[in-house]
Write a structure and sequence with these properties.
Number of strands: 23
CATH architecture of the largest domain: Orthogonal Bundle
Number of domains: 4
Strand order of the largest sheet: 1-4-5-3-2
Helix content: 25-40%
Low-confidence stretches: 1-33, 259-284, 317-329, 501-519, 641-673
CATH topology of the largest domain: Transferase(Phosphotransferase), domain 1
CATH superfamily of the largest domain: Transferase(Phosphotransferase) domain 1
Distance between the termini: 54 Å
Radius of gyration: 30 Å
Largest sheet: 5 strands, antiparallel
Shape: globular
Strand content: 15-25%
Structural class: alpha+beta
Mean pLDDT: 75
Length: 673
Amino acid sequence: MTIIPSLLCSLQILLIIIFTSQTKAEPVFDEINLYHYICDNSNNRGNFTTNSTYHKNLNTLLSTLTSNTQINYGFYNFSHGENLDKVYAIGLCRGDLFPNNCLSCLGSARANLTRVCPNKKEAIFWSQDEKCMLRYSDRLILGVMEDSPKFASNNVDSSVDVDLFNEVVNNLLGNLTSRAMKGDSSLKYAASSLPGPKYEVIYGLVQCTPDLSESDCNSCLGESLQQIPSCCENKIGGRVVRPSCNMRFETFLFYEPRASPPPPPPSPPPPATIGSNTTSQGKSNKNSIIGIAVGVPIAIVVMVFIFIFIYLRRLRKPKKRFQEIQEEEDEEDKIEISESLQFDFNTICNATNDFSDFNKLGEGGFGIVYKGKLANGEEIAVKRLSTTSGQGDSEFKNEVVLVAKLQHRNLVRLLGFCLEGRERVLVYEFVHNKSLDYFIFDRAKRAQLNWQLRYKIILGIARGILYLHEDSRLRIIHRDLKASNILLDEEMNPKIADFGMARLFVVDQTQENTNRIVGTYGYMAPEYAMHGQFSVKSDVFSFGILVLEIISGTKNSRIRDEENEEYLSSFAWRNWKEGSATNIIDPTLNNDSRNEIIRCIHIGLLCVQENISSRPTMASVVVMLNSHSVTLPMPLEPAFHMDCGNSEDMKSWGHNSAQESLNHASNTELYPR
């Protein structure tokens, strides 16, 4: 009698396997065609004239949008033109598409978009099944969360168990939203499945454009999830699609499960024994069924006991052992990185012509930077760390481990390193236009930076810091953001460099203390300079100083104004409060976009407020920069400043070992996320 329940359990398992393995036909939607498009429906941007400058810029941009072969993660964002004729475009492929399929989809979208939306200054196109989306506009659309125009559609068939089905769909899409929003700046995508009623499997997919912050992605997908009951409730399939995000669920597999390996082929049946008869086969089959009915439940029970035993064993292990295991894993990670990125020292010598002075680009506190060229013609920047300095060992390891894991268009890319004997060398991509301070603090050179370029630099720095704080695999505090650590490429795109003093945070950590103050005075937040407390808001402070320097063309040092002598942030605050904010603006900017410049001064002053909690996050800063419709709070008085050369000031703060940095560094610890 005890065999019967076990037999029923085994039969139930077999039935589930049979039902879930059946192929479902794709349903017919009642509202969706092969593609969906909207031509300037909600923003009323108007039309452009055929063969106008805007039309030519649009054609150029769309024809070259996907030509960047370095982009293989399905997100393209570029602009072309100037002033009122400037065109912005975004292309996004569904997260499961391979690069070739992505390019093909966007190419088709480009042809269809210009055909169905002729002469429109703003348009958006979604391909069949939303495999890709292409949009363009005459306004800045990158980094801006937009929930309209939108469309929704549903399957015509209803679920057999409405309440359970709706509950599973809500849980599935909610869980996927939590996963997708935590993606990085290259991909915010999640897809998975859950078992539904009557042996159904419900598949779900959500995606945001990766330029969104974590909070904006969550908001966009959250609004879509709230719309599911009104558009798709009780239906076995549905979707809600917006410019910044999309969401879909089905009872068939509609996406490519790229991360899942294919199931192994079934084992062939054992060969029949020569001379066996039908009766013996029947008995054998009967015995096999009874064996399965008894064996499967027993095997499951044994496995459950094994898992419980392993779990209890792990709970009893001391914390110290866990830390040892974690350290071993970290070391293995470092070794793996080392093997894949290590350069031969002779290769570096040949690339730099034996570190000749002719190739010297600059010199910092713990090394000299040289320009080099590899045998394949690739230009590189080589930082050769000083062999006589007592500093640098931890910074070297820090940069290798950190920067190798960081991938963002506004961060300098680490190509590799060399460690032979006493030689320690870091190899970076070569950035052609030197550093920001080379331009912004030179009266003649800063005239080359009009407001459009300066705004582009400000926004790029903000996006790079946001990636470090929220969107990268690690939460990173840079701790030495300054003009000399912002490099400019051929198109004057900013790239944040020098991670020798960067600090990792754990996921939910908000603040850390250190007994050793490193960085550059003038860019340091007061809580860091005085008490060694640093957080993401410390980098926000440094960013605020950078913004004021970029706008004014002046270093954050003492400024003589008639009889007064004050620092840049104090000077900016006083003029802002007195209603003479234009005194802060670099005279070479003439009358370019005064309202936008003054708004950026406002944002800079918000970042340098003395109260940490009053400073915005970098996610808020990016939103402020991208949208002029966001109302800015009034700034409070900025933090005080000190004379960099006055050691008595430092002694009064209780930090005798603090160091001023031109590019100086100190020992730093790593905190795994």
